[in-house]
Specification:
The chain is of the alpha/beta class and 203 residues long. The protein has seven helices and seven strands.
């Protein structure tokens, strides 16, 4: 059994999809959900699913390696960032080379970097008048959104789409592709580039 951890800061919709996807998987299980916010709704989701949770504090996260000891004790082999807003420290990147992935709600390298998350990304895409957006799943390094790209999927934007409409289209891609790609990486250690456009209809 391969144990994975999910790091998340907010509501955890992507984390919930990952948990559901692997619930009955004979080879992979979500062992731990880590958050930097004690009030994050993702923690309630994890507890309801019977998954262990951990809240990390900034000083401990950056100035000690206590988290690494906790991950090793639970035999965590892979980390998925699902809306986790802190920069991953060097010691964790070194301990999990090519084993930490992040999903970004835009087509990197555009609309990435510190402060570019959630609605900030979608508002920037709308303000720029883009005709497409999408998701990027990438390996994590010591800088925001600069790790090697594993997978991208596009969605078509209409001129009258609001930033909320863009968010819905992008989230549909996140929910569809993130968990299966995690499974692919864990089972085959290979990644597939896919940059084909896909139109998502709001429901």
């Amino acid at each position: 059994m391969k144990n994975i951890a999910i790091f998340a800061s907010g509501t955890g919709s992507n984390a919930a999809k990952i948990v559901a996807y692997f619930r009955n998987n004979p080879h992979i299980q979500v062992r731990l959900i880590v958050s930097n916010r004690s009030e994050a709704p993702v923690l309630n989701m994890a507890r309801a699913a019977g998954i262990e949770t951990l809240v990390v504090w900034k000083h401990e996260f950056y100035d000690t390696q206590n988290l690494l000891q906790i991950l090793h004790a639970r035999q965590i082999v892979f980390i998925a960032l699902a809306g986790f807003l802190w920069l991953i420290p060097d010691y964790l990147v070194r301990a999990y080379p090519q084993r930490i992935v992040n999903i970004h709600p835009a087509l990197l390298p555009r609309y990435g970097g510190k402060g570019m998350y959630g609605r900030h990304v979608h508002e920037a895409v709308k303000a720029a008048g883009e005709s497409e957006s999408g998701i990027t799943i990438h390996y994590v390094n010591e800088r925001y959104d600069e790790g090697d790209i594993i997978f991208q999927k596009k969605c078509i934007l209409e001129p009258n789409d609001t930033s909320e409409d863009i968010a819905h289209k992008v989230q549909a891609l996140e929910h569809r592709y993130f968990a299966p790609l995690i499974e692919q990486l864990l089972l085959s250690d290979s990644a597939v580039q896919d940059t084909n456009s896909e139109t998502i209809i709001n429901s």
